Amino acid sequence: MIKISNESELLIQEIRKKIIEGFDDAGNQQRKSEAFKAYECLKDKTIHYVYDLLLKQFDSSTVNEMQYAMANVSILRKVIEKLAKVYSNGVKRTMDNESDTAEIEAVEKLLDLNAVMHKANRYFRTFKNTLVYVRPMKVENQFAIKAEALPPFLYDAIENPDNPEEAMCIVLSDYKPSRKSYYAIGDAALAGRGVGIARESAVQAMGSDEDTRQFVWWSKSYHFTTNAKGEIINAGVDSEIINPVSELPFVILAGDQDGTFWAEGGNDLVDAGVKINVSITNVEHVAISQGYGQLFMTGSHLPKSVKVGPNHCVQLEHEKDDATPTVGYLNSNPPVDQLRSLIEMRVALMLSTNNLSTSGFATSLKGGQSFASGIAMMIDKSESVEDVGEQAKIFIKKEPKVWGLVGRWHEVYQSRGLLIEDFSKVKMPKELETIQIAFNSSKPILGELDELAIIEKRKTLGLNTQVELIMRDDPSLTEEQAREKLEKIKEEKQANAEAFGTPDNTRGENGNQGEESGGVIGQDSDNAKPNGGLEASGSDKESDQE
Predict the structure, then answer these.
(1) 164, 261 in Cβ contact below 8 A?
(2) Number of C-beta neighbours around residue 137 at 10 A
(3) pLDDT confidence band for 488 (50 / 70 / 90)
(4) Long-range contacts of 332-339 (CB under 8 A, 24+ apart)
(5) Are 274 and 249 in contact (CB under 8 A)?
(6) Which of 21, 333, 391, 492 is packed most tightly, with the most Cβ within 10 A?
(7) At 527, is the pLDDT very low, low, confident or very high (cuts 50, 70, 90)?
(8) For residues 185 and 195, is the Cβ–Cβ distance under 8 A?
(9) 265 in helix, strand or coil?
(10) Rounded to whole angstroms, how far apart are CA atoms 120 and 481?
(11) Is the separation of the CB atoms in 4 and 16 below 8 Å?
């Protein structure tokens, strides 16, 4: 792939054309193909690759016969959900003052940022390479700000010559896999473009004169769209080729980079998921095809074909001197248990080599023989022992950069009066990259009574404020919502106290003990006490009256 020494070379059409030709080389296409395979398996389309792998084992006619048994168990998706847990327990974002914190909470809801970053976490664990793309999104004649995670088959990178692990330029492009589905990045007429899917697109062969692909170029200084020949067909924001935010609108997430932009490896989960599904397919096919008994007949003058079943009679003719004809079934004993053990071994290796527990797994539920349900139970029972803190460190460093891009796009479009109302009324805090990110740790599963006991103990020890205790009981509440709930609780208590009186376990204004306690009787009490308690002095007149 061609390299450039500075951004200004992007303005030369011939260089752009050579760069695009480099995108089409075998190595880069193989990278995209592997990423697309992982993407489809993550989207529950493993069966495509089960079919392909079986073709390497059997001829096409046999594989076509096996389609009834082909498994499509979403193993990769389930395992990735176990591994990508950084955002699973929630995240707390704060600024230096409460008003700024309230503003970013409002913006987070507009962006649906928790869902975006959780998706980025899943992509990061699946591909080892992903981007969070922060861009303007056209809404009628105005714009909103959108953040989205991109899979790596939708973009290419031109490496920074001074630091190849960083990108000088990111180029978004359509992807045409060998299958009929065509994954495109959207309408090239828009400055910001999102991932979309078009079915059975008629994109021409790469590199041909009819090649209709489009490429969206982003560098710190420039932004424009070209065709496959490198000709600029659409300028960026405001019909200019200048990048209005003066930096790449991407936050790059990559792991295990070894002096190059693209991280290598990470295919074991995908391959294991496909092979496990192939094994399940083989087991089911063997069990069914060999489970049926094979009809056989011996003798002379046998019919060419017969119908069998409880309502059919097989008639065999024979002469006096012929051997007595026979009819029967041949039954096999397929090694289903041994094949199932192979599936268990593969799943166990996949889990253990990815820091997931293998304790308590089995390929059956309550004695059943449902392989899909058994593996789902196995993975569901497994608990990750991976140190999520390592992933959290990456996102603590990277998410503030997402906020920085949101702030820059907000400033550009707010100054031009082009933001939709929801975004224009937000008072975006300054220096958003100083935002503080804290991830909630996972909590053990507790019953309601245990959780209430912990809350009461923390309250007694003074470890938390009432607002914090309310948020602990309901983590979905923001601090402001928790304060509002606390005020409602106080108001309700006050209303109940006024309506029914304050509960009191003592008698008398002075808190004197009850009659049967043997304690001091209230000063105004004149009643004689049978328990021998001391009696407060009263007037003789009142005593005589008693």
Answers:
(1) yes
(2) 19
(3) very high
(4) 332/290, 332/291, 334/286, 334/287, 334/290, 334/291, 335/286, 336/283, 336/286, 336/287, 339/279, 339/282, 339/283, 339/286
(5) no
(6) 391
(7) very low
(8) yes
(9) coil
(10) 28
(11) no
Cα-atom radius of gyration of the chain, to the nearest Å?
36
pLDDT at 59: 92
Q: In sequence order, which ranges of 112-173 are alpha helices (DSSP H)?
A: 113-127
Residue tagged 């424009």 (tokens) = 224
Residue for token digits 């082909």? 70
Tokens, residue 456: 């009461």
Q: Using the 8-state DSSP alphabet, how is residue 207 labeled?
A: T
For 305-362, how does the pLDDT look when each residue is reduced to its tens digit (9 = 90+)? 788 777 878 878 878 778 888 888 777 777 878 788 888 888 888 888 877 776 544 4
SS (H, E, C) 215-229: EEEEECCEEEEEECC
Provide φ and ψ at 286, rounded to 5°: -65, -45
pLDDT tens per residue across span 461-471: 988 999 999 98
List Cα–Cα distances, 544 to 399, 538, 540, 541, in angstroms. Answer: 85, 11, 6, 5
pLDDT confidence of residue 414: 95
**Over 70: is that where the pLDDT of 374 sits?**
no
Which residues are CB-contacts of 337 (< 8 A; sequence separation ≥ 6)?
Answer: none
Q: Which residue has the higher pLDDT, 28 or 477?
A: 28
Alpha carbon separation from 244 to 139, 413, 461 (Å, rounded) = 19, 10, 53
Tokens 């166990």 -> residue: 348
Tell me how far apart the alpha carbons of residues 395 and 130 are, in angstroms, rounded to a whole number: 13
DSSP secondary structure string, 157-209?
EEEETTEEEEEEEEEEE-B--SSSEEEE---TTSSS---EEEET--PPPTTST
Q: Residues 6 or more apart from 323 whose CB is under 8 A from it? A: 298, 299, 300
CB distance 79 to 113 below 8 Å: no
The β-bridge relationship of strands 91-94 and 232-235 is unpaired
Chain mean position to CA 330:
50
CB 47 within 8 A of CB 76: no
Angle at 410 between CA 112 and CA 419, to 5 degrees: 85
Q: What is the pTM of this model?
A: 0.72
